[in-house]
Amino acid sequence: MSGKTLYDKIWDAHLVHDDPEGSSLIYIDRHLIHEVTSPQAFEGLRMAGRSVRAPDKTIAVPDHNVPTTPDRAEGIENEESRIQVEVLDQNARDFGITNYYPMNDVRQGIVHIVGPEQGWTLPGMTVVCGDSHTATHGAFGALAHGIGTSEVEHVLATQTLIQQKSKNMKVEITGNLTPGVSAKDITLSVIGHTGTAGGNGHVIEYMGEAIRSLTMEGRMTVCNMAIEGGARAGLIAPDEKTFAYVKGRKHAPKGADWDAALAWWQTLKSDDDAHWDKVVTIRGEDIAPVVTWGTSPEDVLPITGVVPDPESFEGGKVEAARRSLAYMGLEPGTKLTDIRIDTVFFGSCTNGRIEDMRAAAAVVKGRKLAPWVRGMVVPGSGLVRKQAEEEGLAQVFIDAGFEWRLAGCSMCLGMNPDQLAPGERCASTSNRNFEGRQGRGGRTHLMSPVMAMAAGITGHLADVRELM
Amino acid sequence: MEKFTRLTGIAAPMPLVNIDTDMIIPKQFLKTIKRTGLGKNLFDEMRYTPDGAEIADFVLNRPQYRHAGILVAGDNFGCGSSREHAPWALLDFGIRCVISTSFADIFYNNCFKNGILPIVLPEDQRDLCMKDAEKGSNARLSVDLESQTITLSDGTEIGFEVDPFRKHCLMNGLDDIGLTMAKEAAITAYEKVAATARPWV
User: Fold this and answer.
1) Full set of structural domains in chain B with CATH
2) pTM assigned to the model
3) Is some CB atom of chain A closer than 8 A to the CB atom of B195?
4) Which of A3, A81, A213, A293 is deepest in the core (most CB within 10 A)?
């Protein structure tokens, strides 16, 4: 019998009921909720007269539709958005959820940034949230994935989830990254390699020297986009960096609990003889700074490339690529670095953390946005914002001509007023370039924070290595 | 949840690959606090111009597909955001079955919670369904969950796989929260053991 993967081990440790027909019951250690995918779940509880089984394991924060302009303390102008945030306030009160970070609390932010920041996310846990980017928390060696609203209701009522076990997929990034290449380039390159359905039915474990070399922030960026590759979750085994990041955080274990936790966490790795259903290996040295050209996260190319010809694809992808290029307003053969941009969006649960701010500020320092470019920096949480201000990073962005915003999901999905206009082209550090994602008719190119800065400064997609 | 046993209806062809949940229901409609009423905004940005007029050649605007009950779609249907508003919008429009070669995991799960049957077929069989769907409203597909078969308009039968537990819930319209709550003793027992093994959680 072969050994176990990290996923197998976490799964086994959370099995409440093993169903031979394949739908097992898994215990949930942390349930994160936000205003958009929870109202109908709470309504369901009310209608059935049910309560929240474990309010102490439930953490709530509004993030998707909150404005990020400095005047938001005065209230949310859009009525539907305001109602959703008020309903979350009310549900947190009615159901005894005291781990709540309301809109004007300095600890508020994007749920996937707040969880790790406050020490809620710990190695070996099961973490769910009604948001597909819950995969982020896998960076800690936690089994973390998005769920639908019916499942949110199920977890609220029972603290468990009915699950079928996924297959195991190993993604190994060997060696070292070259200068100008970062975690975002890794995760986009993997999706470019496997396609957006490449991970369907699997949990990915990322490993290899290039992954080990990443900071926790970088690892969160990699796992965040596991869902864009179709995977149920992405995982990275915890190590000394993980433990150092977690230690001392508000909700991390202390004293004897810390020692016991650490002893278990150190066992959380895949066995050498574990079975993998799928394996992908990429050399770190082969990864270049990349951008997306189309309307699927798999439409990835090195910045040195050209817009592809749809006829170069096969099957359904030919029509999809034609449609993408029409939507994006691009001609095959155009050099990617000749694509002029209108806007830079820097933020999101993919790249809204302090390390992202530092890397981006290092590129921007002493430079200005191109005169025709609008730039927006949206920190992932109030605490990231505060730290960036204390480190002088905020001033670097402001001096370069960027707007310095309050924390939230913002233009990553444009549920609040931060949206692209039709035809507006954006260099974005977010995670999805779908049609209409950042605003109807908006054109999104995904890239790393430093690449987004390079695009902002030059006014077109650009190779950050030329600015270093 | 409404039971799903047998469905005979018009199938609409959407051969595009990677139809994501942002396409199925764009973000501006996620501000609702209800599950119902999203059908009119299903595929909103593909279906209407910015000023709200119907785009005539979009499949669900074509006369023969306006009352479609089944979608036949390209690979990797429902990828992207976890929004359950996507199946809610399909259901509210009247679509209770989606046929593709593959689905994104979260969307696939969400369908079963809402009385929608997602069917995975090999490419050649999906293509047969697509061809049938392209015939318009004269060609009706029948889907029988009990026997796990699709019957095309010419009588051809295609079998499909479905997880037994999900099939059971769908056929009986079961609320799985109720089923899980019946396992209360197992959950409490797990919590006791976990409190000792991992007290920091």
Assistant:
1) 6-197 (3.20.19.10)
2) 0.97
3) no
4) A293
DSSP one-letter code for B48: B
8 Å CB contact of B82 and A146: yes
Assembly ipTM:
0.94
Check if B113 contacts A (Cβ < 8 Å).
yes
Which B-chain residues 135-174 have CB contacts (< 8 A) with chain A? Answer: 163-166
> A318 is written with which tokens?
């030919």
B136-164 pLDDT per residue, tens: 887 899 999 999 999 999 999 999 999 99
Residue B80, chain A, CB below 8 Å: the answer is yes
Averaged pLDDT score across all residues of chain B: 96
Instruction: Name the 3-class secondary structure at B67.
Output: coil
Q: Do B32 and A196 touch (CB under 8 A)?
A: no
Nearest chain A alpha carbon to B82: A132
pLDDT of residue A460: 98
A197–B164: do the CB atoms touch at under 8 Å?
no
CB contact under 8 A, B84 and A43: no
Q: 3-state DSSP call for residue B17?
A: coil
Would you say A305 and A318 are in contact if contact means Cβ atoms under 8 Å apart?
A: no
pLDDT tens-digit profile of A241-291? 999 999 999 999 999 999 999 999 999 999 999 999 999 999 999 999 999
> DSSP per residue over B104-169, as a string?
-HHHHHHHHTTT-EEEE--HHHHHHHHHHHTT-TT-EEEEETTTTEEE-TTS-EEE----HHHHHH
Whether B180 and A36 lie within 8 Å, measured CB to CB: no
Mutating which of A14, A30, A33, A36 best tests the B interface, going by the most B Cβ atoms within 10 A?
A36
- The answer to whether the beta carbons of residues A333 and A307 sit under 8 Å apart is yes
Q: Is the CB of residue B32 less than 8 Å away from at least one CB of chain A?
A: yes
* Residue A23 binned pLDDT confidence (cut-offs 50, 70, 90): confident
Please report the pLDDT score of residue A21 as a whole number: 72
Minimal Cβ distance to B31: which of A65, A124, A432: A65
- How many C-beta neighbours within 10 Å does residue B133 have? 27
Q: How far does the CA of residue B15 sit from the closest CA of chain A (Å)?
A: 7
**Which residues of B are less than 8 Å from A83 in CB distance?**
31, 33
Q: Is the pLDDT of residue A1 over 80?
A: no
Distance from CA of B71 to the nearest CA of A (A): 17
Q: Which residues of A touch B164 (CB under 8 A)?
A: 21-22
- Provide the CA A127 distance to its chain's centre, in angstroms: 14
Q: Are B113 and B1 in contact (CB under 8 A)?
A: yes
Amino acid at residue number B131: K
What is the rounded CA–CA span in Å between residue A199 and residue A332? 28
Closest-CA residue of chain A to B176: A154
